[in-house]
Amino acid sequence: MSNKVILVVLDGLNLSVARQCLGYLNGLIASQQATLYPITCELPSLSRPLYECLLTGVCPVESGIVHNQVNRLSQHESVFSLAMQQGRKTAAAAYHWFSELYNRSPYQPAEDRFTDNPALHIQHGLFYHWDHYPDEALFLDAEYLRRHYDPDFLLIHPMNIDDAGHQSGLDSAHYRNTVRQADIILSDILPQWMAAGYQILITSDHGMNNDRSHGGTLIEEREVPLFVIGEHFSHQQAQIDQTDICGVICELLGLIHQKPIARGIL
Ligand SMILES: [Zn+2]
User: Fold this and answer.
1) Which of 227, 226, 255 is nearest to 243 (CA)?
2) Residue 146: pLDDT above 90?
3) What's residue 1's pLDDT?
4) Distance CA 169, CA 182 (A)
5) Domain-by-domain residue ranges, the chain?
6) Cα separation of 125 and 76, whole Å?
7) Distance from Cα 214 to the centre of ligand 1, integer Å
């Protein structure tokens, strides 16, 4: 059993579409290898504010990262900063806004796209700045980081589901089929991670609406899934808030931290 953690953030994934279209993940639930907890995302239901929420446990109105154009470093301890300061290895294959929140702002593609610096909070990074960057390539980027650096904490953040939602809306074949495509990619690599004993969380920042956007309080914008896989999870019924996910990851990594945590999940 390992203390290593992989966090997958499938950007813009609505809960009911996750239930309908992630066939492999729902198969893992049926065979009692995964558990799904519904989460109501914090507000506003926007990406950068909720990246900060997921990684620091601080909701947007408290963090000050209240919309996507607030481009500055996080002012709170994050999974990355706590892990790095306590001698754990960190890595991320993710949108460049994560680099801006935890490494350096603003992002300079020529400097920051490929990051390998033990002094940074995200020590090993492969960042992208195109919303259509293929999920398939992104997951391969993440596999490179995992195999090459063997990080204790690895963030994997593909963007195609959110991008499809902005183009075609929640109730569209394009959006649903993009989710199905992510499920196929996950079905290829999850068995390897599970065999290696990782603790795995698969969630989203926010959902999607039929106006091809998100940001407000509609249930379809706020309800997202949290799938958990691994022996350190209780796999019992529990109430978990989006602000608890950071603390749960810190516990799994064995870090000293002051973050809120939903104990029932562990
Ligand atoms: Zn979006």
Assistant:
1) 226
2) yes
3) 55
4) 17
5) 5-265
6) 20
7) 6
Q: What's the CA-to-centroid distance between 120 and ligand 1, angstroms?
A: 27
Q: How confident is the model at residue 161 (pLDDT cuts 50, 70, 90)?
A: very high
Q: Which of 159, 154, 175, 186 is nearest to 11 (CA)?
A: 159
Residues 261, 253: Cα–Cα separation, whole Å:
13
- CATH for 5-265? 3.40.720.10
State the distance from the centre of ligand 1 to the C-alpha of 46, rounded, in angstroms: 7
Looking from the CA of 105 toward its CB, the CA atoms found within 13 Å total 12
Q: At a CB cut-off of 8 Å and minimum separation 6, what does 195 contact?
A: none
Q: Residue 2: its pLDDT value, please?
A: 77
Residue 229's pLDDT band, with cuts at 50, 70 and 90, is very high
Ligand 1 centroid to Cα of residue 213, in Å, is: 6
CA of residue 198 to ligand 1 center, whole Å: 29
Tokens encoding 112: 């920051």
Residue 20 scores a pLDDT above 90: yes
Residues, beta carbon < 5 Å, ion ligand 1 = 12, 162
Token pair for 131: 């919303």
Cα 247 to Cα 43, 106, 145, 228, 255: the distances in Å are 19, 27, 24, 14, 9
Q: Give residue 160 CA to ligand 1 midpoint distance, Å.
A: 10
CA 259 to chain CA centroid, Å, is 17
